[in-house]
Every structure is written in structure tokens, then in C-alpha cells.
Amino acid sequence: MRRLTKWTVLAGYLACSAVCARAEVVLLLEEPYGAFGGMTPTGHAAIYLTRVCAETPVLLRRCLPGEQGVVISRYYKVDGVDWIAIPPIPYLYAVEHADEVPDWVDAREVAALRDAYRRAHLESVAPDESGGGTPRGDWTQLVGEAYDRTIYTYGLDTTVEQDDALIRDFNSHPNHTRFSLLFRNCADFSRRVIDFYYPRAVHRNFTADLGIMTPKQAAKCVLKYSRKHPDVPLTAFIIPQVPGTIPRSRAVRGVLESLVRSKRYALPLAPLAVLHPAVGAGMAYAWLRGYGFQPRQIAMARGGKPLKPGSVVTALRQPEDEKLP
User: What is the pLDDT of residue 297?
Assistant: First the structure.
């Protein structure tokens, strides 16, 4: 397996955190993939916190010098817990260090990387099957996400006080599974975290998404909030899917946008849209909203360029106000 040289591509936001020495709450808008992504192309949402780290996958703490933060999200049927926290490099690439990131992969190599990291660090939430075999299930979404999909990142600044308050809040409440596709999904979780820092910044869309919180809607809200509050700058990057034989991920969409852009759903719904003006208006609105927000274009317009294998990243460092005695 070919590997990148030391300090090469990690991820856009890791690079930005190093150069800008900023602490942020970052929305990860992740493209859908696979059969399920073809049926429901709303993608996945996660949160990257640059000043918060993980003592264990289910216990948060402040980062120590040299640590790079944590990615946290809501998962379905992973050890019966609601959220799990993973360091950013393993989350993206299923390895512990930058110089271990491969520049090209196939499905067998990705499976091996994921299982090796699981055995070393995630036995508590994804234990071996009887006989020591690799378990089935959604634990694979915890590590190596950049092998399966392209990820768009949108970040807002945070303070030490806000990050410490979030750590106390998460550690003080029971962490039991609460997943619901319609009402408590990964985008709802991301909304909760962003709203903790910026109250009412993220909200549902009852027209385009029928009231279901989606990753794309969360990203739209973050962008809109930054535009309405010039004192809260938005930073953005694109984390490309790692090259290889794994199928490429698809464009991320909202609920009605998924229907009107898919031949599978659009043709059967066409008579309903004609007979019921409200349905037709909602579908037209979703179509326009979908074209009005293109994650790649938005990220690049905000200065976020895709990082390609071979581009050099400065060694990561913590925000200046985070250094501990």
C-alpha cells in the first residue's frame, strides 16, 4: 500500500486549525454512498471540535498540547450509545498518524485499516465476535470516512468557556441510544451541538425537508448565520474522497430535492404535484433551493480548496489560548 510522505494530506480543517491557531466547532457535511445513499441521498453530518478531545470514545475532556480535537456524531446501533467521539485522523483515515495515510486504497485495504484501529482502540464499543472475528454493524462509520465519501466542512469560532461548558454538558448526561431517522438523526445531533455555541443558529426546514433535519439544511443554516453575523467568520474546506477502487460518493441533497431529482421518485410524484398545488409548490421550492446551495461551490467560494495527495500541511498545533500549564 502506498503511503503519503510525512506531513502530507490530513484534512482541510486540520490544516486550517494549524495555520490559523483557531478553536472552532465545525460541521462536517458528508456525501452519501452505497445502496442506502442511493435511496436516501441526504448524507451524514458530524461535528469536529478543535479544542475538545476524547478520554474514551464516550468521555470528553480538554485537549492536551499536541492533540488535534475530536469528531463526534450520533450513530445507529453502535454499542447502545447515542454519540461516539473519535480523533480526526482516525475518523477520516482509520490510522493514528499522518504519515500512515494511504494515497490509494481498495475495499480490502480499507477493511484491514478499520479493523486494525478497532482492535487497538475501539473494543469497548465494537468488541470482537465470538472467536475473535471482526464484528458486523455500523461501527465501520466511526473510522475511515474519507475512503467512502467527500466531506465539506464549515466552521465557526468557539471560546474556551463554551468548549468547557460543552464538555461538562455531554459528560453529565446519560449517553444512551436515541437515534430516530425522522426526529433524532445525525443532523439533529449536529444542530444540537452548533446551537449550544450559537443558539437557534440551525433549524429545520418544513417546506423543502418536510420538517426532517438534514445535513444539507444544517450547512445552509451555518452559512446563513455567518452572513447575518459578520463578527462570526465562516471557514470552509473540502476533504476529498481518497482515490482508489471504492465507488465515488454522490451529491448530498435535501428531502424533497432527493425526490424531484430522482427519476425513481419524480415520475410517480408528477401527477400528485399537478393535482395538488401545495405539493407542486413544495417540490419546485426544493428544486430551486437545491440548485441555490451547492456544497462544493460554497466551500470554494469561502476560500476552501480541495486538498490533494501530495499537498504539504504544516504540523498541527493547538489554539494559543488552549495551551495548558
Answer: 72
Residue 78: partners with Cβ closer than 8 Å, 6 or more residues away: 84, 125, 126, 137, 138, 139, 141, 142
Is residue 87 a contact partner of residue 68, using CB atoms and an 8 Å limit? yes
Q: How many domains does the chain have?
A: 1
94 in a domain, yes or no? yes
Structural domain contains residue 282: no
Domain annotation covers residue 26: yes
What single DSSP character describes residue 8?
-
Q: pTM value?
A: 0.83
pLDDT at 194: 98
DSSP string, 155-215: EEE--HHHHHHHHHHHHHS------BTTTBSHHHHHHHHHHHHSTT-S---TTTSTT---H
Three-state DSSP class for residue 104: coil
Task: Give a yes or no: residue 198 inside a domain.
Answer: yes
User: pLDDT digits over 238-267, tens only?
Assistant: 888 999 999 999 989 887 777 666 555 444
The answer to whether the CB of 153 falls within 8 A of the CB of 237 is: yes
Low-confidence ranges of the chain (pLDDT < 50): 1, 4-13, 15-16, 18-20, 265-270, 272-275, 307-325
Q: Which helix (H) or strand (E) holds 235?
A: strand 235-239
b (16+ CB within 10 A) / e for 8-24: bbbbbbbbbbbeeebbb
Domain that holds residue 210: 12-252+294-322
